[in-house]
Amino acid sequence: MRSPWTALTALCACFFMVMLDATVVTVAIPAVLADLGATLNEVIWVNSAYLLANTVPLLVTGRLGDRFGPKRVLVVGLVVFLAASLWCALSPTPASLIAARAVQGLGAAAMTPQTLSFISALFPPERRRAPIAVWGAVAGVATITGPVIGGLLVQHLGWPSIFFLNLPIGLAGLVLGLRLLPDPRGRRAVTFDTTGAVLAAAGLALLVFGVQNGQHFRWSPLVLACIGAGLVLLVVFAIGQRGPDRLIPRRLFADRAFGFANLVHAALGFATTAMFLPLVIYAQSVLGLDPVRSALLCLPMAAAAGAGALIAGRVRWDPRLLITSGLGLLMAGTVALAVAATPGTAPLELIPGTAVAGFGMGLVFSPLTATATTALPPDLVGAGSGVFNTARQVGGVLGSSATGVLLQVGLSVSVPKAAAEYAKFLPPRFADEFVERVSAAAAAAGEFSAGGPQVPAEWSPSIAEKVRELARAAFDLGFTNAARAALVLPVVVLVLGVIAAFGLPKAPRPARAPAAGTPVRQPAP
């Protein structure tokens, strides 16, 4: 075959699309609301459908690559993803867009584990640091630049353009992949764990659905039952994973470093989502930035993440040192953002924190991926890649949900407190009603407009205008305090990630040999 680096280009094109579409829709929410006449809940489901469909099948699709060959699964996933992207762009109704996003997520789930499988097939263990660094740079840059690209496209070309963008990138990746990627196959077909696949898919679907939508349904008994049932199914699934042909072979965790790497990856997914969500909302709701300008705050983070990933791939430092240093810088950047955030902060004052956080993320991706996958025997690369990517996705779901809960709780406490402070500037007869109306408007989330809460018609214009100004100031202060408090959560989770990172080896290990009698996949001649 030609240079494996040329083949890596096709893999990076596929992976870039998958990571980009996880965040690119964020800034398109107002445009979708207006153009399709969607409700806020329907737009939330546009993201949730992709997230669910992308997370749930990862364990299964990783094992499918072991059985049928990663090239076949990658190509099928890419075709499904491209068809669903066209469907998304042409969707005439919210229901159609939600269904298309779900199919798009399934295609993404088929592709993601195969990218790591191919890196293991294309490069020997001693040469994987650099390609994994490129893979990590693509992951970091695509995730962070998603809102930037989305904002620019939505503002100038409309929201369907964010899905049309996938077509040229995906078609180029498809042509390169068909021509340049080898076709690794096993000497015999891997027995597929159908029972395990059903249990894992059902358990993850129920758990992710419950966590992702718990706040929307106010943690109703039905939501809690979904979470409980999902956990039970996952426990049953874990108990049944015995034997070499299970969905998650126990040999994956014979090397405890693989288990610790997954814990760190889950913490990283949790922290990046939990940091990004309040930052973007704060930039738009408090600082008054439009979607493009708020997304541009992420450009320094994206550049720093790419630089960090490339540096991590070139230096020959202890990978554990790189990982812990990266997590530490991500913590420091998050703390800097929390300290800098005030109602009157200039947007440029946030750039140092975002740049430090981005550089830290970049340092973690490639050494963590190399540590998790380098020692895997060839017959477990697909399954290991599925587990590794599932850890990040589930961490991101939990981070998004937990941050949403904290923001809601923080608003319910901090906005009334701020309103009470600003009510002192009003005549006493207006104070109590001012606090009540501001608190109710904040609790209604999207119903709080820049004009402030509604005021009684009998109030004089001068009093009404003063009330609106004070209400805006109270909400800005209350939301800022809630966002700063929410940023404590990713810091705590990153501390746990650093602790888990100390369980990682100080140097990469050679790949373990397959168990006796286990077939080894070889590239087809």
Question: TL;DR of this structure?
Answer:
The chain is mainly alpha-helical. The chain has helices spanning 4-21, 29-36, 40-55, 58-68, 70-90, 94-122, 129-157, 161-164, 166-180, 194-213, 221-239, 256-285, 291-296, 299-314, 319-340, 351-373, 381-422, 428-443, 461-486, 488-501.
Task: Describe what this molecule looks like in 3D.
- With 525 residues, the chain is an all-alpha fold.
- The chain has 20 helices and no strands.
- The protein has helices at residues 4-21, 29-36, 40-55, 58-68, 70-90, 94-122, 129-157, 161-164, 166-180, 194-213, 221-239, 256-285, 291-296, 299-314, 319-340, 351-373, 381-422, 428-443, 461-486, 488-501.
- Helix 12 runs antiparallel to helix 16 (351-373).
- It starts with a helix and ends in a 24-residue tail after the last helix.
- The model is unreliable at 445-451 and 513-525 (pLDDT under 50).
Relative strand content:
under 5%
| Mean of residue pLDDT values | 81
Helix content: over 70%
The H-and-E topology, N to C, reads as: HHHHHHHHHHHHHHHHHHHH
Kindly list the characteristics that best describe this protein:
20 helices; 73% helix; mainly alpha; 525 residues; single chain; disordered C terminus
Secondary structure layout:
Blueprint: H1 4-21, H2 29-36, H3 40-55, H4 58-68, H5 70-90, H6 94-122, H7 129-157, H8 161-164, H9 166-180, H10 194-213, H11 221-239, H12 256-285, H13 291-296, H14 299-314, H15 319-340, H16 351-373, H17 381-422, H18 428-443, H19 461-486, H20 488-501
Helix pairs in contact: 1-6, 1-7, 1-9, 3-6, 3-10, 4-5, 4-6, 4-17, 5-6, 5-9, 6-17, 7-14, 7-16, 10-11, 10-17, 12-16, 12-17, 12-19, 12-20, 14-16, 15-16, 15-20, 17-18, 17-19
